[in-house]
Amino acid sequence: MAIGYSVKFRKMNFSRKVLIEKEGEVVFDRKYLRLKGKGANDHGVIVNFTDIKEVKTDKDIFIFNTFAKETFELSKFGGAMENFLEDFYRIKNEYFAENMFMKEGMLNREFDCQIEITNSYGKSITIGKTMLQFYEQSMVFIPKCSDVFMVNLNFMKHHEFDEDSYQLQIETDSGTKIFVSKLGSNFEDARECLEGCLEKMYQRVLNQWNQVLTGFSLQVLLKLAYAIKDGKAVSMAALKKIDPALPLKIMELAFKDNPELEKKIQFLRSLDKDEKLYVGFSLKNSADGRDIIVRAGFLAALPNMNTIALGISNNPDDKRVFFFRIVMEQGIAADKLEGKVLEINQCMVLFDYDLSPLLKDKNELRKTKYRVAILRMAFLRLFRRSLLGYSQAFDLERFKDDSNRFFAQASVMKKPVLRHRQLFKPTLK
Predict the structure, then answer these.
(1) Domains, the chain, ranges and CATH?
(2) What φ, ψ does residue 130 adopt, rounded to 5°?
(3) What is the pLDDT of residue 428?
């Protein structure tokens, strides 16, 4: 059943010229809202939730802008402004949570709470009343009057339940800090739920590592599980700290069936004294549960060349190595490296080491289940914008030539001159 509110609305262009002004109603659908005037022949204006860029309220006026630089003002709610806001965010957040892959695994529990966020720049934002949902591999925060967001357990750097203040404090790999309060009598239940999700994940990953990586103690494998978690790539330096013999064994496991890719990695590592190599794994149980399917990928970061190279060893016949700019326009690549690695890491985990959807152009993506995520998730857009192309050369000498051409492109830190669609099809045959 559609939900509607009687309103007066105005549609304006980027110069604030009024294009439409009517008395009518706003009607919610699952993925859009419709603004229509009075009368059966008025079909109204449809605005998709994915097209809404910014939202604000000014007393009894609701204002939102779109990516097409249009502005809409809704007023005269007749005292129903608060109910309208709750319905707007509830329907919009349900749609985004489902279509932006926030619900990772099965739902365990949900709790009412309040949250405050401190972003990586130190700015604090009070979100207010929120529904916190615990899934097997993610935590989804659904505020009453703000946008939904998710914390993937792979990228949760630290968490702590403070018994003195009855707060859950979370820090993500991006530097964002989330303070969850007013859990009330559910404080212990929330702690048990989160710890249970983490314990199950680590136990599953530990069991998988125990089958595919022999010769190491359970203590070493547990540290490895804590580092890589469920697909996250970590640096070889971090693996060496766990056990000096671990990097060599990890490389053997990752590239034993793809020796040509390993040669390319060695070439890339020889180019930059500040080079950093990251290796990640996606381990899945086979259908019969007897074997572990191993998918591995590497990130060779070359900050002196403003480049990150990415390769995936799933298929020995897939010779592609992708190249990305670290800095798009200005800045020092070494300072931006950590954020760029995190950005690519998130894509690897979300797409389970299959990047083919990210290589499609906009028209193709509109036909896939990833269309909303590509439009709304910043790290996916940055991934696509910074992609220089890929080399699929079989022999090492050809790969060296391809690499040098991409390095030359990466060194020019200006905005790409190609049209947006063209950026996702560069390749070297």
Answers:
(1) 3-94 (2.30.29.30), 100-199 (2.30.29.30), 213-428 (no CATH)
(2) -150, 145
(3) 45
Mean pLDDT calculated for residue range 176-193:
95
Percent of the chain with pLDDT strictly greater than 70: 96
Give Dmax (Cα) for the chain: 76
Tokens found for residue 243: 């056990």
- Flag whether pLDDT at 272 surpasses 90: no
Stretch 233-256: mean pLDDT, rounded? 92
pLDDT for position 1 = 60
Q: How many CB atoms lie within 10 A of CB 339?
A: 15
- CA-closest candidate to residue 92, choices 58, 118, 61, 53: 53
Computed over its alpha carbons, how large is the radius of gyration of the chain? 24
Enumerate residues 6+ apart whose C-beta is below 8 A from 218.
Answer: 206, 210
Q: How far is CA 93 from CA 31, 54, 102, in A?
A: 10, 14, 11
> How many angstroms separate the CA atoms of 231 and 248, rounded?
19
Is the pLDDT confidence value at 347 over 50?
Answer: yes
DSSP tag of 303: G
Q: Which residues contact 369 (CB under 8 A, 6 or more apart)?
A: 99
167: buried, middle or exposed (CB in 10 Å: 19+, 13-18, 0-12)?
buried
Give tens-digit pLDDT for 277-310: 999 998 988 887 788 888 899 999 999 999 999 9
Taking residues 311-340, report their average pLDDT. 87
Across the beta sheet with 45-48, the strand order is 45-48, 32-37, 18-28, 3-12, 71-75, 61-66, 52-58
Q: What is the crossing angle of helices 187-212 and 218-228, to 10°?
A: 120
Can you read off the two tokens belonging to residue 366?
A: 């509109």
| Complete edge-to-edge strand list for the sheet that includes strand 292-302 | 234-235, 276-285, 292-302, 307-312, 321-325, 387-391, 427-428
DSSP 122-162: S-EEEEEEEEEEEESSEEEEEESSS--EEEEGGGEEEEEEE
Angle at 109 between CA 154 and CA 379, to 5 degrees: 30
